[in-house]
Amino acid sequence: MIDQQVTDKRTLILEATLELVTERGFHATPISLIAQKAGIGAGTIYRYFSNKEELINELFTTIKKRVIKAILKNYKEEGTFKERFKHLWINLIHYCLEHPKSFQFVEQYRYAPFVGNMTREETFIILAPIMSFFIESKKAKAMKDLPLYTLVALLYGPIVMLVKLHLDHNQNLTETKIEQAAEACWRSVALAPNK
Asked: Does pLDDT of 1 surpass 50?
C-alpha cells in the first residue's frame, strides 16, 4: 500500500508539473505552485526530487518512456520494412495528437540547459528499439544509408510540423492525411520503397 502511495504522489507531481510548465513555462512555475496543483505540501515534492531541474529531467524521461511504449504498441517484426516503418510512424503521430501537453513539453524543453546530458543519454537508450529498426533497414538496403540522426530528422520533423499545424487549428489531420504523410516520409528515406 505504501508503494502505491509513493507512486501516486510521484505521478501527481509529474502530471501537475507537465500541466503547469506547458502553460506557464519553466521559470514561471515555482515548486509551490506545482505542490498546490498536485494537492500536496511543497515539502513533499522535495522527498521525491532534490530540485525543480531534477523534477523536469524525470518528467522528460517519463514522457520518453510513454512515447516508446506507444510507438511499439502492436508492433510486429514481421512484415515489410515499409509496413513496419509506417506502423511506428503512425503510432508516434497518434501519441503526439492524443497527448498534446507531452508533445509540447518535449518540444519546448528538448534542448533546454537544465535538461542534463544524462537525461538525453537515457532517452537515447529508451529509443534503442527504434534505432535498431533503422539499422536493420539500412543493412537490408530497404532504407538509405544515412546517419541515424539524419534519418530521425527527416522522419520526426514532419511529425512535429503536422502536429503543430493540427494543434494550432491550421489543419485537421485526418487518417487519410496521416497515411499520406507516412507514405511520403517512407519514400523520402527508402532505398527500395516497396521493400
From this structure: no
DSSP state of 195: -
Instruction: Please give the single-letter amino acid code of residue 87.
Output: H
Q: What is the DSSP string of 135-189?
A: HHHHHTTSB----HHHHHHHHHHHHHHHHHHHHTTS----HHHHHHHHHHHHHHH
Find cell 499545424 and name the residue.
Answer: 165
Closest by alpha carbon to 65, among 149, 130, 123, 18? 123
Half-sphere exposure of 172 (CA within 13 A, CB side): 1
Cell numbers linked to 106 = 518535449
Distance from CA of residue 142 to its chain's centroid?
25
| Cα–Cα separations (whole angstroms), residue 55 to 22, 31, 68 | 14, 10, 20
Q: Which domains does the chain have, with CATH numbers?
A: 1-49 (1.10.10.60), 53-189 (1.10.357.10)
Q: How many CA atoms lie within 13 A of 147 on its CB side?
A: 3
Chain segment 37-73, per-residue pLDDT in tens: 999 999 999 999 999 999 998 999 999 899 999 999 9
Q: Cα(7)–Cα(34) distance, rounded to whole angstroms?
A: 17
Residue 144 C-beta-side C-alpha neighbours within 13 Å: 14
Distance CA 89, CA 184 (A): 11
